[in-house]
Amino acid sequence: MRRMIALTRRTALKGAAASLALPALATPREGLAQAATTPLRTARRGPDQPLFGAVTWTLDNGLRVVLAENRRAPVAAHYLYVAAGSGEDPAGKSGIAHYLEHMMFKGSPNVPSGAFSRVVAREGGQDNAFTSRDMTAYFQTVEASRLPLMMRLEADRLASPLMPPDEYEAERAVVLEERRQVIESNPRSRFREEFDATLWGPQHWRGRPIIGWEDEIRAITRQDMIDFHARFYAPSNCTLVVAGDVREADLRRWAEEFYGPVPSRPEVTRDRAAPPEAAGEARLIRRDPGVREPSFLRTFAAPSATWGDRSLHDALDVLAHLLGGGAGSRIHKALVEEGLAVGAGASYSGQVLGVGSFFLYASPRPGVSPERIEQALNTVLSELLDSGATEAELRRSIRQETAGALLALDGLGAAPRMLGGALSIGLPLDAVEFWPQRLASVTLEQVNAAARQVLGTPGANMAGWLLPGDA
User: Fold this and answer.
1) What superkingdom does the record give (predicted)?
2) Cβ-Cβ contacts under 8 Å for 344 (sequence gap 6 or more)
C-alpha cells in the first residue's frame, strides 16, 4: 500500500531520541519516518563533525546525487525525491501529486504494470512511496549488490511512466477509498481537515488535504497528470539519495549509467502563497458521536526554514520543546502534572517550503472543562511572554533535543529521509549535517524573541475543540 504522509522536519532524527509524543490532532500521520531509524549501535562522532558525512554531486541533466556511506551492514537504501508535493497541486485539482504517486507504479515501456514491486520483493527488498506537501519520494531497501538494479528500474520509471488509460479509473477508485479510510472514517482526521481548511483557506496549499478534496480527485484527468509529470518530474527537480554499504566511485558510475540518459527539462519554479493575515474563524468547535475524549488544538502561523524570519527557525524548535516537549516542559507541568490533562504539549513544523506552524494541544482528564484547559494554557503563554524562558530551560531543551543525534547515525533510513527532505525544499546539505551544532548555539534572547513574534503577535492562528456528542 502506498503511503500518503506528512513528512516533517527532522522526524527521523528526533525519532531516535526519547522525545515528545505527537499531538492527537496535530499533523496526522506525522512520525511515520521514525520507523526507519532503529539504530544498529551507537556511533561515535566528534562535536564538530557532520552527522552523516554525505557527499553530493550533480549530473549533467541536473539530477543531484547524495551518498551517505554506512558500511555497518551489506544493505543499501535508494530514495528518489521529486520536489513536488500537494503544495504544487493546481487550484481546483488537489490530489494530483498523490494520485500520480499511485500511477507511477503502473509500469513503463520496459517494465509491466506492477512488476516494479514484484522485482524488489523477488530480490528480498522492500519498496514504497510517500507524498507530502513538499515532495514525493520513491524508495527501496535492498541487499547492497542489488542497488544497480533498483537504480535502473527507478530511472526508467522517472523517464517514461505509462499511466495506462485502462488502469487510470481503477486507481482513482483506490485513491478515493484511501481517502474514505484515512480521512472520512476517522473523526479526528475529519476535524483536522476542516481545521486546516478554516485556518488557511480550502484552496491555500496548507489548507488543502494532501490526498485532495473528493470532488477534485474525481475531476483530475489523465492529461492533468501527464502535464504535472512533464513539469515537475525533471531531473533538475529531483534528488537521488543513497545510503548504506555503497562506494562513491561505484555510485558515480551507476548514476551516470542509469540516470544520466534521462532527458533534462526546463528549471522548475515553486511558488507558495503566503499565509492569510487572519484565520477564517477564530475558533472551530465540532462534536462527533465517534469521539470519546475531547481534544484541543491551537495553531499559529510561524516562520520556517524557508519563509519569514528564518533566523528564528532553530529558536522555534527549542521553544516548542521548552514549552511542551514532554516531562519537564512548562505545559506538561501546568496541565499534566496538575491533573488537568492526560496529555498536553507543543510542536513546531518548520522544515517546510513556505510558512511553518506552531501547535499547542491538550486532551483533558474526565471532568475537566474545555474552559479550564484553555485558561491553563493561556496562563502558561502569558508567563512565558511576560518573564521569558530561563537559561536552565534552554540548556535542558537543547540537551534533550540533540540527544538522539548520535543514535540516528546508525539507522539506515535516517540519512536519506533527513537529507532528501531538506534538499527537496532548497536547504543546503549543512542544514542537516550540522543541525546539532546550530541548535546548541541558540540563545535565550532568540528563544524569547521567537515566542514574542509567534505567540504574542496578532496573525493567522486558530483554536479548535473536537468534543464527544452529536453534531
Assistant:
1) Bacteria
2) 324, 331, 332, 335, 336, 361, 362, 363, 373, 377
